[in-house]
Amino acid sequence: MTDAQSIRITVNGTEHELAVEPRRTLADVLRHDLAYTGTHVGCEHGICGACTVLVDGLPARSCLMFGVQADGRSVETVEALGTPDALGPLQQAFTDHHGLQCGFCTPGFLMLVTAFLRETPSPTDEEIREVVASNLCRCTGYQGILRAVRAAADAGAGS
Amino acid sequence: MPDLTGGPAVAAGAAPAVGAPPGTAPAGRWIGQPLRRAEDRYLLTGRGRFVGDLEPSGTLHLALVRSYVASAAIEAVDASAALSLPGVAAVITAADLAGVAPLRGVLDRPEFVATDMPILAADRVRHVGEPIAAVLAESAYLAEDAVELVEVTYGELPAVASAGEALAPGAAAVHEAAPGNVLVDFTPMPTPGLDGIFASAAHVVEAEVSSGRVTAAPMEGRVCLAAFDERTGQVVLQTSTQVPHTVRTAVALSLGMDEHQVRVISPDVGGGFGQKCVVAREEVLAAAIARLLRRTVKWVEDRREGLTAGFQAREQFYRLRGAFDADGRMLGLDADIRCDVGAYSCYPVTCGVEVLMAANELPGPYRVQSYRVRSRGIATNKTPIAPYRGVSRPQAVLAMERLMDEAGRATGLGAVGVRDRNLIDASEFPYRNVMGASYDAGTYRESLAQCAELLGYGDWPAVQARARAEGRLTGLGLACFVEPTAYGTASFGMRKMTIVPGYEQATVRMDPSGSVIVLAGTHSHGQGHATTYAQIVADALGIDPGRVRLRQGDTELVPHGWGTFASRSIVAGGGAVARASADLAGQLREIAAHLMEAAPADLELAGGMAQVRGDPATSVPIGELARTAHHAAHLLPDGLGRGLEATASFDPEGTFSNATHGAVVEVSPSTGGVRLARYVVVEDCGVMINPMIVDGQVAGGVAQGIGAALFEELCFDESGQPVSGSFVDYLVPTAADLPEFEIHHLCTPTPRTPTGSKGMGEGGSIGAPAAVLNAVNDALAQVGAHVERVPIRPADVMAAITAAASSDQSADRKEAK
Hints:
The complex is a heterodimer of chains A (159) and B (817). Chain A has 159 residues and is of the alpha+beta class. Helices cover 31% and strands 16% of the residues of chain A. Chain A folds into two domains: 5-80, Ubiquitin-like (UB roll); 89-154, Orthogonal Bundle (DNA polymerase, domain 1), CATH 1.10.150. Chain A contains five helices and five strands; from the N terminus they run E-E-H-E-E-E-H-H-H-H. In chain A, helix 2 packs across helix 5 (143-154) and helix 4 (125-132) crosses helix 5 (143-154). Chain B has 20 helices and 29 strands. The longest helix of chain B has 28 residues, at 569-596. In chain B, helix 10 (393-411) crosses helix 11 and helix 10 runs parallel beside helix 19. In chain B, strands 3-5-1-12-9-10-11 form a seven-stranded mixed sheet, with helices on both faces. In chain B, 60% of the residues are buried. Chains A and B meet through helix 1, helix 2, helix 3, helix 4 and helix 5 of A and helix 1, helix 3 and helix 18 of B.
C-alpha cells in the first residue's frame, strides 16, 4: 500500500503528530489512531452525519475527509464540549429535553449544532429544523433534538 | 458525583411537552417523574463505549466476501491472490468451519418448514449479500482490499425475486425442503359458518393493501469483536445486540460448547429496533474464527452491508373482507396474508415471526366475532427478515384501518362512527378475543374520541372543502390499535418455538454504603433502563434514584434473561426489579425492626430512612442498615443481613397498550408529494414510570412509521439484486420531513404487572402507516383516486390521480355484494 504520510493536527487544542496512510479517513484517524472514540461512524458515505466534527470551526463529515487533509488544521470533537461532571450548555439542553436515546448519532448532532449556534446565535425554528435535517437520528424522531436546540439557543449557548 | 436526579428533566420555563411539574419528586414517588436520564452524561460527552470503539492491539479485521448473485451454486472459491497480499492473515471459507453448525430456527408445528442458515455458504447462495468467505487482515482497509481479490465462481441458478413469482407454478425452489416456497402456512381453525355470515351481511367491504420491504437501520450497524480467553477457555464475544443471552445460546450451540464457555458482552448499543434481537451469522462467524485462529477478530458492518445483507422486514400483502350488519357492526373478518420472508429463517424467532403475528393480531382492538385467516411465509431469493419494531402490527393495522375506512363509507357511519361502534368497550374488559388473547383494560373508544376531538374531526368536512376551494388537497386519517406487549413464556410457548423466551430476572443488591446495583437480563439500547429501573427501586427502598445503578449486557454478570425487544422490558424486567426490590425492602425493614425493637410491619422506608410509620423522630438511615447488614452482621440474628440482596423473576401474562393515531396531510396535485401537517397520538400504556422516556419512545416509533408510510423502501430488481444500498436510496426521514408530534396520554393501570405499567416501545411505529395512508386516501377521494400501498411515493400518487382523471371507474368504490 501507499506509504504513510506524516501529518500534524490539533484536536481539541492538543497537537498530534502521526503517520497515516493517505487513504485513511479522518474519522479513523480520530477514533483509532488518537482514541477520540466519541466521534461515531454511521454510514461512511456522508449522509448520516454521526461523524460530524469541526475542522477549523466548520462542520465536516469526518468519514468523507482523509486524515491527510486535516494536516495543519484544527479539529474539534465532542470530547471538547464538556465532561460528564460539567456538561456544556448544549449538552445540558439535550439531557433536559430528551434529545438522545441510544446516543450513537448524538455527537454528530452536537458538533453540527455547535457550529450552527456560533454562526446563528438567535435562530428561527425553521432555521433550526433545516440544520437539524442535515443529520440522521433513528431513535428520537428529532422532537427532543429540536426542542433542545431551541432551548440552547434561547439560553445563549451560541453567544 | 454528577447530578443525575436533580429534579425533573424539564426545568421550569422549558417546553412542557413531557408534562413535568415544577419542583422535585413528591415524597416516596419517583415513579411518574420525568427524570433526566442517568445514561445521558456519558453519552453526551463522547464517553460511551460502543463495540466499534474497541480495538485491542493485535486485532484482526474481518471483512466478508458476499455473493453478488441472488441464486447460484458456488463452484469454486480462489483465495490465493488475497492470501498473497501482505497483511492478510487468513481467508476462511465454509470448509474451514467443519463442526460449526448452521443457525436453525425452529417452530415445532406441522405447517412450518425448518431450514438452515449456514454461517458461511458452502455450495449454494440464496441471496445477494450472503457471506461466502471471511478475510482476516491487519487493518480494515487491507481486509477490504483482499475481499476484492477473492475469486468466486458462480453457477447461476434461477432466482425468485418476489412472493408472486415464488408461488407461481414451476417456480424455482429457494430450499429443496420447500418445493412450493411456502415456509409457513398458518390457517387456524376458522369460525364455523363464516361464508353464511358474509352471504347474509348487509355490507361486505374489501381492502387490498401491501407494504414495501424496509429495514430498522439503527445508526450503529451490526458490529462485533470476538476473542479467545486462554485463561478461562472461553470465547468472549462483544457484540451490539439486544439479546446477549440468546447470542450466547446460539454461539454455544453452533460451536458445540457449553454455554459457560461463551461470554457475551454488549456495552452501549446504538439502536436495534428488533434487527439485533435475533442472532446474526456474522456474530457466530467471528466467534468461530476467534476460536479457530486464537486471535481477536473484529467485524464492523458497513452501511451498504447493513442495507443489503442485514435483516429486513415488513414486505407483506393483505387481502381482507369484512362483513357488517346494517348498523355497522362487524360480523366477520376474512383475510389472506402473504409475507415475503426472504431466503432464510432468523434465529431464534424464525421466519414465522411476521406470519403468525399477522394472523393472530389482525383483529386488533375491534370486536371481531367471526374470523378466518390464512397467513403464509414465502421464501424468495432476498435478504432474510427479522422482527422490526411492531413486527407485523404496522401492516395488519394498515389493512384493518383501510378496511374500517371503507366500512365507514359503505355504512355511512364515517371513519369515527364505524370504529366507535366496533371498538371494544371499557365495560367488556378483560376481553377474550377471537384468537383467544385476553386483553387487560384499556381506553379504546376514549382514545378515538379524544384523538378525533384534537384533530377537529367534527369540522373536518368544512375545513377540507375550504382547502379544496383554494386548490389544495387535504386529508385526515385515523388508526386505532392495540399493542400486545411483553409476551411471557405461555405466549411464546404457544408459538411452538424450541427456545421459549418470556420471563425476566433481576438482582437488586445493596452495598455497605447503601447504594444499589441492579443486575438485569434485559438490555437497554436507548430506552433508558438505568433511569426507569432506578425509579422503581427508589420508590421501593425509599432512597434517591441517584443511588441506584444498572449493570446489564454481560452474560457473566447478570442473571439469565431474554434481552430487550417486543416492548417487554419495563413489564418483564421492571416487574422483576419491582419484585426483587420489594423483597429487599422487606429485609431492610426486618433489620431496622431488630435494631429499633419495633415490628417490621410498623416500619416504612422513605427519604433514605427507615422509620416507624409517620414518626420521623424514630428514624434510622438506610445506609446504617446496609452497613450493619455487611459490617456488623454479628448484631443481627442468624438469617438476617450477611449480605443484602434479592433476586426475583417475572413472567408476564401479557399487557395490551392501546392508542389512536391521527394524521392530517396535504397532497400536492401537481407533484404527488405528501406533506404531514399534523400528527396526533392519544395512547394508554398504563402507569408511566418516566413520561419523558415514554414520549421519546412514541416519537421515535412514529418517525419510523412515517418513514415506512412515505419514504423508506428496499427495492430489488427482477433478478433479486438489491438497489437500495445507501442512505441516498433508502430514505430515513430527516427533521424536515416530520411535523411536531402532539402526544397525549390516558392511563389505565394494569393489574397484571407489579408497577401497573404496560409495554409501549413499539406503538409509535404501529399506527403511523395506517394513519398516513388513510389521510392520503381521504385527500385523494376528492379526486376519485386512492392508493393501497406504502411507502406512498409521489409517483404512486400521481399515477392514482392520473388514472382517476382518465377513468370513470375510479368513482366506483369497492362496495361489493
